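The material for today's practical consists of a large collection of protein records. There is nothing in a record beyond a sequence line and a structure line. As an example, a complete record with its sequence and its structure tokens follows:
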Amino acid sequence: MGVGISVFLLVLGAIFRFAITADIDGVDLKMIGVILMIAGAGTFLLTILTMSRSNQQQQQNERLYNGDNPPPSV
């Protein structure tokens, strides 16, 4: 879901930055587009970082107990 939101923000930002030529008083649509693209890139990086850490934690758990030799009973 995080990657989808990132792509959505990047595309929306690109539309605002490059495709919209309307002029609204007091609103800089090109700057809003840049801000949305930066937010999309940041969200993408955070999503990848979170997924990477989750994968590392899962691999560590699999190394601790792989099912072949059960933990000692207490």
